[in-house]
Amino acid sequence: xxxxxxxxxxxxxxxxxxxxxxxxxxxxxxxxxxxxxxxxxxxxxxxxxxxxxxxxxxxxxxxxxxxxxxxxxxxxxxxxxxxxxxxxxxxxxxxxxxxxxxxxxxxxxxxxxxxxxxxxxxxxxxxxxxxxxxxxxxxxxxxxxxxxxxxxxxxxxxxxxxxxxxxxxxxxxxxxxxxxxxxxxxxxxxxxxxxxxxxxxxxxxxxxxxxxxxxxxxxxxxxxxxxxxxxxxxxxxxxxxxxxxxxxxxxxxxxxxxxxxxxxxxxxxxxxxxxxxxxxxxxxxxxxxxxxxxxxxxxxxxxxxxxxxxxxxxxxxx
Length: 318
Hints:
The chain is α+β, with helices and mostly antiparallel strands.
């Protein structure tokens, strides 16, 4: 609502100061266990001027907050999609800073869940988006109306206290800019880019580590054919099978990682030397050591040799 129209909406009273005391009584009923408050008719006009863009949406809610004496959670789409940008646009400086940094908290929470993922699949991408973008936007979306209401209420109250009349207060509010596109672009957009620049390398690294982990898991799945042969031979003849070419292993998707595979004829231990296909694993070794439980069943222990923990699939993590 433009300033001239807002001023025109004020009643033409002989004594404008009387509007400060003019009230309307709302229907008598209880809201939240307390009577509804009395709302001055001029307040809607002052709110509209102080809010600026989208005043129709906000003022209706703000007057409802005013009647009950408190704000309440709602839903606000702009602050879900770009909470920091919206807050700085509305000149909410501290909330804007907090909202802009929320994705970092989401990234830290997601990092704590990283060991649960074995590969960078759809679930990983969905959880990353949820943790870094959507969940950090839920809280701002719920409290945006309350924050803007508190801000606008403070501005209106401070302006009225320094004015001699409602008309003067409205004129002073009309001279004030309720929003800042420059702050939205430079502060909100700049912080979004800074946070993205900080988080993207982290997620790129995590994605690469998951790919290595998935390939290592495929390799262990390929070697499972050798383990099964050892288990079967031991169960039938209490012997360890002779060395073979392990053609079944070579046919599996993860076999490309294997540079050499050796079975100890005495202990049945499988030694897998990793080749150069994955640079992070080149020249490293995994030992698969069999043991027998009380029921003579073979249990396998995965022993990674100088392989970082972040690359290990779940069967090789302590």
